[in-house]
Design goal:
This protein is α+β, with helices and mostly antiparallel strands. The protein has two domains: 38 residues; 197 residues, no CATH class. It contains four helices and twelve strands. The strands form two sheets. Strands 4, 5, 6, 7, 8, 9, 10, 11 and 12 form a nine-stranded antiparallel β-sheet that branches. It has a three-stranded mixed β-sheet with strand order 2-1-3, with no helix packed on it. A hairpin with a 2-residue loop joins β1 and β2. The longest helix has 22 residues. The chain is elongated.
Length: 253
């Protein structure tokens, strides 16, 4: 056997050696175990932000808001950064966070020092619930008001109190049992979609929506507050200015 033939024979024997497959197997096993350990490794929740902390910089749908931690209802949302949705609650008319989230007061809260606003909760509670979320595929409030709601209205609006008009939605529509309420002389100033008080223990409620670029702010409040609708509009303006510093481009509907 020549030297060349002997070298080729040794090379073939080394190639068939089981060492290389074993090395590859253990390498793949090590990678798999490392990945599983990383995925299943226990994580610890971030420390909850204190209620008395400064307002948190929170981004919803690319829009920056400064939100007081004490007003944020869900503990998981009390973290700065980007969120899909934020739920808040404020005392009315002071527009401050409630002392504790779960207590529902039946007495009107005291206004802030120097606040001469005529806003009063009347007999409809003292909580204003606010949700901030991305608009997504939903039409903007102004577009809904122009192109969606009119398809479900009754024939004409009814006069309400203090210059308001009440436009009922037809029965059998998606908005059955609701009214659209707006000022007769300034319909573009303010509007709210409100339920009717059918069962006395269940108060009628209203929804007012405002748009901040791609973020929509939904405010829920008792319908009885519209007895002072000008004060309600002023209060919502103040709250928008507190939560979002630049409100020039906000759409009020």
């Amino acid at each position: 056997m020549t030297a060349r033939a002997a070298f080729e024979l040794r090379l073939r024997r080394q190639t068939r050696s089981p060492v290389l497959p074993l090395v590859l197997f253990f390498a793949m096993l090590s990678v798999t175990v490392s990945f599983v350990a990383y995925v299943l490794w226990p994580t610890w929740d971030k420390p909850e932000t204190s209620f008395d902390s400064p307002p948190l910089p929170i981004v919803v749908a690319g829009v920056l808001f400064n939100l007081p931690p004490a007003a944020i209802r869900a503990p998981v949302q009390r973290q700065p950064g980007a969120h899909e949705r934020i739920d808040l609650v404020f005392l009315w008319p002071s527009l401050t966070p409630p002392p504790t989230e779960r207590i529902v007061s039946t007495e009107p809260p005291a206004a802030n020092d120097g606040d001469t606003s005529p806003l009063t909760p009347r007999d409809g509670g003292d909580r204003l619930f606010v949700t901030i979320a991305g608009l997504g595929n939903v039409l903007p409030p102004a577009e809904r008001l122009r192109s969606v709601y009119p398809r479900f209205f009754e024939s004409q609006a009814k006069p309400g109190n203090d210059g308001l008009a009440v436009l009922p939605f037809r029965s059998g529509t998606p908005y059955d049992g609701e009214d659209l309420i707006y000022p007769v002389d300034e319909p573009n100033l303010f509007s709210a979609r409100c339920t009717r008080e059918v069962v006395r223990p269940v108060p009628a409620t209203c929804i007012h929506e405002r748009l901040f670029d791609a973020a929509e702010m939904t405010l829920r409040f008792p319908r009885v507050w519209l007895g002072d609708w000008r004060g309600v509009v002023a209060g919502f303006d103040r709250l928008a200015a507190q939560l979002h510093q630049s409100t020039d481009g906000a759409e009020r509907k």
